[in-house]
């Protein structure tokens, strides 16, 4: 696969026929995609847990009620005990950040959580536990099998769109009403 065909910094949208309990009706932000596989974070599976619960487990004191009540998402079935923060890129460096694009980074270190708790962290962020992962060639195979659509990244969907609307909104980025798609088109 040539580098320009990698899907970094894009959304994966589960097709309506995907019935896997971990991925049905999901939107995944692809953080890394290369010839070794892909890693993404699911954006529309809020957990019962709130960010305040994570702060309590890590003995971090939070400054604002809004921060404490921020949702935590199930990022995927792989390593659900591991936390990730997708956030807008700033001039500040964190202990463990990967730049996804000029505007988005992924961080998995305590220092960003402490900064969020005390009000000095990134303005926009999404906290997730776990991630979705694909081995070399697996995502490409699933796309050929009509399991996923991919669309360009949109900041508004990542941070501002209500969770219940993210699946439809991501598909709308390319002019598709995902609820009208048929699962048999092109398969005969």
**How many DSSP E strands?**
10
Q: Number of DSSP helices?
A: 6
Query: What best-fitting shape do the alpha-carbon axes yield?
Result: globular
Largest sheet: 10 strands, mixed
Please give the share of residues in helix: 10-25%
**CATH architecture annotation name:** 3-Layer(aba) Sandwich
Radius of gyration using CA atoms only = 17 Å
**Total separate domains:** 1
Structural classification: alpha+beta
**CATH fold call:** VC0467-like
CATH class categorisation: Alpha Beta
- How much of the residues is beta strand, in percent? 25-35%
Mean pLDDT: 90
**What is the CA–CA distance across the termini?**
27 Å
Your description of this structure?
There is one protein chain. The protein has 188 residues and is α+β, with helices and mostly antiparallel strands. The chain has one domain (3-82, 127-180): VC0467-like (3-Layer(aba) Sandwich). Helix content is 21%, strand content 33%. It contains 6 helices and 10 strands; from the N terminus they run E-E-E-E-H-H-E-E-E-E-H-E-H-E-H-H. Strands 1, 2, 3, 4, 5, 6, 7, 8, 9 and 10 form a 10-stranded mixed sheet that branches. Strand 2 and strand 3 (37-42) form a beta hairpin. The longest helix has 9 residues, at 110-118. The chain is globular, with a radius of gyration of 17 Å. The model has no long low-confidence stretch (mean pLDDT 90).
């Amino acid at each position: 696969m040539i580098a320009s065909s990698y899907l970094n910094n894009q959304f994966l949208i589960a097709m309506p026929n995907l019935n896997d309990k971990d991925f049905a009706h999901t939107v995944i932000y692809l953080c890394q995609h290369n010839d070794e596989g892909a890693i993404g974070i699911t954006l529309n599976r809020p957990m019962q847990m709130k960010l305040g619960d994570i702060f309590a487990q890590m003995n971090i004191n939070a400054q604002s009620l809004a921060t404490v009540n921020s949702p935590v998402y199930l990022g995927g079935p792989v390593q659900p005990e591991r936390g990730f923060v997708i956030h807008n890129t700033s001039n500040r460096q964190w202990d463990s950040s990967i730049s996804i694009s000029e505007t988005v980074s992924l961080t998995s270190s305590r220092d960003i959580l402490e900064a969020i708790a005390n009000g000095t962290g990134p303005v926009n962020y999404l906290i997730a536990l776990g991630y979705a992962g694909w081995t070399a060639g697996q995502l490409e195979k699933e796309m050929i099998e009509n399991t996923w659509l991919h669309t360009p990244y949109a900041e508004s969907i990542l941070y501002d769109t209500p969770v219940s609307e993210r699946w439809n909104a991501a598909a709308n980025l390319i002019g598709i009403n995902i609820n009208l798609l048929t699962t048999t088109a092109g398969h005969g």
